[in-house]
Automatic annotation (TrEMBL):
Coiled coil: none annotated. PANTHER family: CYSTEINE DESULFURASE, CYSTEINE DESULFURYLASE FAMILY MEMBER. Pyridoxal 5'-phosphate binds at G71, T72, N151, Q179, S199, S200, H201, T237. It comes from Adlercreutzia mucosicola. This is Cysteine desulfurase IscS. It catalyses: (sulfur carrier)-H + L-cysteine = (sulfur carrier)-SH + L-alanine. Gene3D superfamilies: 1.10.260.50, Aspartate Aminotransferase, domain 1 (3.90.1150.10), Type I PLP-dependent aspartate aminotransferase-like (Major domain) (3.40.640.10). PROSITE patterns: AA_TRANSFER_CLASS_5. Pathway: Cofactor biosynthesis; iron-sulfur cluster biosynthesis. Residues 4-364 form the Aminotransferase class V domain. It comes from the Bacteria.
Amino acid sequence: MKQIYLDHASTTPVRPEVVEAMLPYFTEQFGNPSSIYPLGQEAADVVAAARETLAGLIGAAPREVYFTSGGTEADNWAIKGFARANAGKGKHLITSAIEHHAVLHTCEALEKEGFEVTYLPVDEHGLVRPEDFAAAIRPDTILASIMFANNEIGTIEPIAALAAIAHEHGVVFHTDAVQAFGHEPIDVKEMGIDMLSASSHKIYGPKGVGLLYIRKGVKVENFIDGGQQERGRRGSTENVPGIVGFARAAELAAADMTAEHDRLLALRDHAIRRILDEIPSAKLNGSWESRLANNVNFSFEFIEGEGMLLQLAARGVCVSSGSACTSGSLDPSHVLLAIGLPHEIAHGSLRMTLGRDTTREDVDFAVDSLKATLANLRMMSPLYEDFQHGKVASVIERLKADGFPYAN
Ligand SMILES: *Cc1c(COP(=O)(O)O)cnc(C)c1O
């Protein structure tokens, strides 16, 4: 059976050009960048070239870019490393309620060390309100970490505005840009970003490699004690093939970023319009305007999410209920609860994230499958029958009356 993969926010396939660029570094060019003979120095040179490429793509200097094992490590390093190095100035951090667990659980770990963390609420679109952010800043606030774009609902946060507020108060600004890097234009200097996390496997590069940008002058503890790799701040022999692949993937993403963005945006809006037009009791989650070009996230009333995902999988449609980390657990997504969705409908949620090889036919097939699946599930739902007979009220109707947009 044909598989239609619509879960690109979880991970992406490695592009053939990227595999090709990586291959020599597993075999003939296997040298250790710390070795002084040519085989080693050649490896050091490609790592340096990759650092330069990636730094250039975000407007940073190569010395400000550190390779990590992925987005999670970059988030851990940025937040723990900064907090511990600057605890003498204050022990208060600010983040948002809708961060990835790589940030949320890191902040929770710091709370156990005696730091205080404010988890900012978001509006119904998933946007952090700049006025809430400004109001949360205290004299002892040292760091803010607000994601560039959300992995579940695709909301793009007003990063430059938030960073400007942080700087007015002497607060350092980190952003988890894993979902945005390679998809949205980013310039750390222009946007006032002091630290930024990115990951390779969300942009058609290999898994297990990412980067942390640390602006020159920002004091952060070293992350891994060991050798002199990453300027002595993160020991361990460099993942040379991974780093080469990450840089190649980023370069390819940058080369057609605008064209691919616009193509995905048209497909995304086609999917959203079809679902709103053709499926009753459905609600788009997140913002429509400030949204990643590949993200579709809906809640459906009178639906149990697990059953929906399984039936779609049986039809060859690979989608998720939110983040890969929360699927398989019965708790509703913290992101959907934070945008104000009641538990009943947060449970019946679906995320489709489109990618480079997604066609209009794929999107139509997925929406057709979704329609059939929902009709099937609702036919078996006593609650839906009661609703059709006017015996129970619809939560989505109530939300619409409360001013929630994009619901049917
Ligand atoms: C995927 C993801 C991460 C984790 O990145 P890894 O490279 O898988 O560790 C962190 N933050 C966000 C927003 C993500 O989407």
